[in-house]
Amino acid sequence: MSAFGVFVSLLSGKPFLPQDFMESIDALTTENVAKFNTKYPQGLPETWGGEGKEFDNGVYYYSWGGVLGYNPLIEGLNNLDPLHHSLVALSLLFTKERNQNDGLVGRYSMHLGKVIRSDYQLDHVDAINQTAGMVSKDIDPVQLFVNQIELLKSKGL
Q1: pLDDT for 110-137, tens place per residue?
Q2: What does the pLDDT average to over 3-29?
Q3: Mean of the pLDDT values across residues 90-118?
Q4: Helices (H), strands (E): how many in the chain?
Q5: Using one digit for the tens of pLDDT, what is the confidence trace for 27-79?
Q6: What local confidence, expressed as pLDDT, does residue 81 receive?
Q7: CB 62 within 8 A of CB 54
Q8: MF terms per GO, please (predicted)?
Q9: Which is nearest to 100 in space by CA: 32, 54, 49?
Q10: What's the predicted TM-score (pTM) here?
Q11: Are the C-beta atoms of 91 and 77 separated by less than 8 Å?
Q12: How far apart are the C-alpha atoms of 76 and 72, rounded to whole Å?
């Protein structure tokens, strides 16, 4: 995993930033996420699955995300994406949001601030138009980012 961290550092253009895969995994445990959320509660919803404040402590918070599609008939090029299949396998490890996750993050766990939408048919890497744009045929990740920019622009941000 450390070799992967070095590879990511090289691709990021910041090859000397520290990478620690095990520390990053540890930071995502239930206990450590709870500690982080207690220390930095801005934008968090008061109830599970709800919305947090859109504006809190001088910062605007918006979130959107996806849930895995399991129907190969509408998955389009995603059927050819090995990362998609890996995320489908990982999604089965979820206990709380088994059928409502993007393979790495649960649908309601991603809610922060104003929720634009959290059920786009996207896996975690589809949201950034990876792998090579192999996404479900009913979604355009690039357009989602354009829509987000338009929302921020309409708010004067």
Answers
A1: 999 999 999 998 999 888 877 767 777 7
A2: 76
A3: 94
A4: 5, 4
A5: 988 899 999 999 999 999 999 999 999 999 999 999 999 999 777 777 777 77
A6: 82
A7: yes
A8: hydrolase activity
A9: 49
A10: 0.81
A11: no
A12: 7
Question: Residue 17's pLDDT is what?
Answer: 76
- Give the Cα separation of 108 and 93 in Å (integer): 16
Alpha-carbon distance 66 to 105, whole Å? 9
Backbone angles phi, psi at 19, to 5 degrees: -125, 130
Using the CB atoms, write b or e for 6-17: b if 16+ within 10 Å.
eeeeeeeeeeee
Could you state, in order of their start, the residue ranges of all structural domains in the chain? 1-40, 44-154
What's the CA gap between 88 and 101, in Å, rounded? 9
User: Is the torsion defined by CA of 74, 79, 80, 85 positive or negative?
Assistant: positive
Measured over the CA atoms of residue 9, residue 13, residue 14 and residue 16, the dihedral's sign is positive
**What is the Cα gyration radius of the chain?**
17
Q: Which two tokens stand for residue 146?
A: 């354009």
Please report, for residues 5, 8, 78, 124, the alpha-carbon distance to residue 12 in angstroms, rounded to integers and kept in the order given.
10, 6, 25, 19
Residue 59 phi, psi (nearest 5) = -125, 135
Q: How far apart are CA 126 and CA 142, in angstroms?
A: 10
